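Page 42, continued from yesterday. The earlier attempt failed because a stray header line got pasted into the input along with the sequence. Redoing it now with the clean sequence only.
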Amino acid sequence: MGTQEKVLEEVLEKSVDQGNNEIILYNDDVNTFDHVIETLVYTCEHTPLQAEQCALLVHYTGKCTVKTGTYKDLEPRCSKLLQAGLSAEIV
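This time it went through. Structure tokens are written below.
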């Protein structure tokens, strides 16, 4: 195995270990800004300002990445968002 292949393999392993998954929150016509903000603060550990900014982005652009991390960390958070009536998915 050449040096270049070994370095590439190490880079690929590191990117897999870091877990670059995201929770995407989608806009809907049902939930209030207050509900979305409170849910993001509780579920994603956002500050109130972060949650408000995400809520505005979702409202005006249709979606927003609200949390990144490993799938293992994001799965229960996404489930809580869905249980709260929000539209979200892990990508």
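Notes: Residues 31-91 form one domain.
Reminder to self: strip header lines before submitting.
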